[in-house]
Specification:
The chain is an alpha+beta fold and 143 residues long. The chain is built from four helices and six strands; from the N terminus they run E-H-H-E-E-E-E-H-H-E. The protein has one domain (3-142): Hotdog Thioesterase (Thiol Ester Dehydrase, Chain A), CATH 3.10.129. Strands 1, 2, 3, 4, 5 and 6 form a six-stranded mixed β-sheet that branches.
Length: 143
Amino acid sequence: MKQVETFLRVRYKDTDQMGLVYYANYFVWFEVGRCEFLRSLGMSYKSLEQSEIFLPVIEAYCEYKFPARYDDELRVVVSLKMLQEVRLGFQYDIFKVGEKETLLVSGETVHAFVNQRGRPLVVRKQNPFLWRLLKESSLETTD
């Protein structure tokens, strides 16, 4: 199982009036981690889109355990949880880095493989090289 870590710091603009990270920002950080996961495989969202492969989110979930605050350093850990011919799913854990590392949120996103018109595509056929890279990095694969 491949895991990719990304580090970031909570900016003031990421917080709400109570000084806590606004809940939707965790999904932004999931995306940051997901982009780095793909880069670790030698590709980017841009290169996927140039190959006419798009990954819209079709499901998203986040369980909030503890809040992050302004200036906290965070570690985003991403793994490819599920891979199927027409979709894939990522698992995310975001930790507060410090003397005692704390798990703040856990979440998942599921993405469809679609073409430029939004029609589902079988990535194994469209791009066998990408399929192999993803398959080697996945926790669970359904052929």
